[in-house]
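Morning F.,

Quick status update on the modeling queue. The single chain you submitted on Monday has been processed. Sequence for confirmation:
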Amino acid sequence: MVTIVDYGSGNLRSVQKAFERFQVQACITDDPQVVSEAKRLVLPGVGAFGDAMRELEVRGLVEPIVRHLQADRPFFGICMGMQLLFETGWEGGRQQGLGVLQGEVLRFDLPVGMKIPHMGWNTVTWRADSRWQATVGDGHYFYFVHSYFPQPHDEAVIAAQTDYGGAFCSAVSRGRLFATQFHPEKSQAVGMRLIESFLNDTD
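Structure tokens below.
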């Protein structure tokens, strides 16, 4: 059973379908009680950092998500769901995040001629000691669409980096928390391998 958090950000059905490919039940919900009881929690999302946090707060979802992470239960954050893990986002001014990971979410500052948002396929380089490096290896293309990226204060949580006008953090991992800036559900076979690895986490 996988619980997918609904806070009105869209893209939920494609995430649900990706998990259902592995014959698991994937429930989309905005019920705080259901989220608090989740064994495996998925936080997807697109849109603006501040709007996303306000929706989580209005729906009473912040506390159960944070408790899930503090208990080190399996968690998969996708795109905005990765950015929200950090203390501060700077989209539309300073915004408070979930604060589970130390760091901030910054806008790309790119050389002339490079476009924002970073949209389309790009490669990912995994940290050598990461379980995810063993799962997929380096050089595979994943699908991105974002204008902001996280900058962790603790480099130990960086699971992968991607180059777009310079290296940026494109995945984080700590305990049973895993999150990606790219969209595994849109990244074909290699994205499915990450999702399958998450589902196989039974430690």
